[in-house]
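Worked example 2:
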Amino acid sequence: MFTDEYYMKMALQEAQIAFEQDEVPIGCIIVANDRILAKAHNLTEALNDVTAHAEMQAITSAANYLGGKYLQNCTMYVTLEPCVMCAGALNWSQISKVVIGARDEQRGFINKSLTLHSKTEIVLGVMEHECSLIVREFFKNKR
């Protein structure tokens, strides 16, 4: 069995791909039974689509892989706390667990008093430093 850090490193690899493509560097993977169902990163610039967040891409990919809309018994590893839109999609997907690298105090769903599905477990702060560093570097380069 693999650790949360192992999978978060894979999500960080996706964030690095986004960084290199001049996308906000957020990466995400979805796992079930130690099998990776989906890997994704932000594609909002490439697709010219504000909904093309890493989480949305991963949810769609994993649901297609499983052949159903619910992600029960799945875990999402995401480098930055999901926004309200992505949290809504995660809620509807009934995903079992979400592991978050860094908090997003301004745009994340937690400070907006939103919750995920009642059965969804949330784990915060896995590789927090590395996950926040890539976002800070990206925006530092933009200024």
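The helical segments are 4-20, 44-47, 54-66, 84-93, 128-142. The longest helix spans residues 4-20.
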